[in-house]
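Researcher: Next entry in the queue.
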Amino acid sequence: MSNNESKIALVTGGSRGLGKSAALQLAKKGFDIIITYQTKKEFADDVVKEIEAIGQKAFALQLDIATTLGFDAFVVEVQNILDTQLGAKKLDALVNNAGVGIHASFGETTEEQLDAMTNIHFKGPYFITQKLLSLLNDGSSIVNISSGLARFSFPGYAAYGAMKAAVDSLTRYQALELGGRKIRVNSVAPGAIATDFGGGVVRDNPDFNEMLSSQTALGRVGLPDDIGSVVAFLCSEESKWVNAQRIEVAGGFRI
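Model: Structure for this entry, 255 residues:
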């Protein structure tokens, strides 16, 4: 796909991990990319360079998904990039990926921790998507990143897992209400992935890694590219009849 035919995708939290993989996989499918980062601008700049090396345009914007206070200004920044750098086009895909986890037992979870999980994983994606609706093309695709922890349960993830279950429910409501614009909405629920998420415990703790692998039909934990390619598929025309689905990408964990 040549640049003048490129579609445009916005990936929140695209500077590392799953978001970075999704951004790169989308670029390989011919999308120009806008990624967001919270604090690590240097990581985001590196991803921009990698996307440009693939042959697509890329831009990085700062966004704190935990607070809606900056959302209006962010939307203006996205509009400016679309108008001045990308030929006054609109977005064709939105990937709500940005997020962090906490590990705290149900009995010890604080109100501040629950508020943080709510703001980052539910309220933030809810309103950033709402505010970007006018910048989304009819027929575009929204992918919300959920978690396997919305289906299976581990001690210490009550707040995080519950918010991701809310994301799965929201996905269906968005698909229903945005269907009139032919906008598809799906959620991707990764299993355990070897990234720096959660302090890198899946990647760096051999015993934990082995325990997870032993309960997975395919015999290993996931890698970022296992997820990014599925996200890119859901943003593409290849998945044009997939809508309102929760797709768990976990290698067959606890089946």
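Model: The beta strands are 7-11, 31-37, 58-62, 91-96, 136-145, 184-190, 246-249.
Researcher: Noted, moving on.
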